[in-house]
Amino acid sequence: MSGGMRQRLRWWIFPGVNLHTRLRYRRLPAYFLPASEVASRRVLDAGSGNGMLGYQAWRRGSRVVGVSFKAREVRICRELFNGHLGIAESELSFVEGNLYDLPFPEGSFDEIICSEVLEHLRDDVRVCASFRRLLKPGGVLHLCAPNADHPYNAGFPLDVEERGGHVRAGYSLGGCRALLEPLGFEIVASAGLGGPVRQGFNRRIKEVQERCGAAAGLPLFLLSLPFLLLESERREQEMPFSIYVKAL
Question: For residue 5, how many other CB atoms are within 10 A of its CB?
Fold first, then answer.
């Protein structure tokens, strides 16, 4: 497959067949600052992964820097967003880096996005203290992580050596408050993401992909779409898969 065809296919299925990832891609940007609120707004996507939330922030008029410690993720994001989509690196860039040692001056950013990252890091207090230092006065932190109270997350094997897996089950809303408020953050909004129907399908998609390869999950992904429309917001909030907080 040619490079151009690979990028077109990647964009067609973007941000992938993981149903929780797709939900975050659709729902979290509603909490980002409106384009008219801050001129030349700067955003840090801390642990940028496939770049989807940094891209959503860019679409709302921000200049975005995505940081990942994985060179492969940085390369793929550059190929897709800067290469295939032609977005200037001065507007949306991706760099390799470590969240324990972010090389930016104090007060560099209006917003910081950190989605599904902190559960991989032992010293979450150190990282969030760094976020506070990097935010301008009145800046916003968007934090999303697995819900520690969800049975799947609570039983997930932990990576005690901090080699890329989960070092903790995640965070409850109370856990987010206990982490952020002593550092000077104020949580002003929160939400639960992902109900039982979504998780049921997503778990099976991952199992099929692990056995048969990434493409094998596509039929089950397509099958899941009409069922997801039937999942009520009430059921989603009863035991959400992930917790999101917006903190000033």
Answer: 9
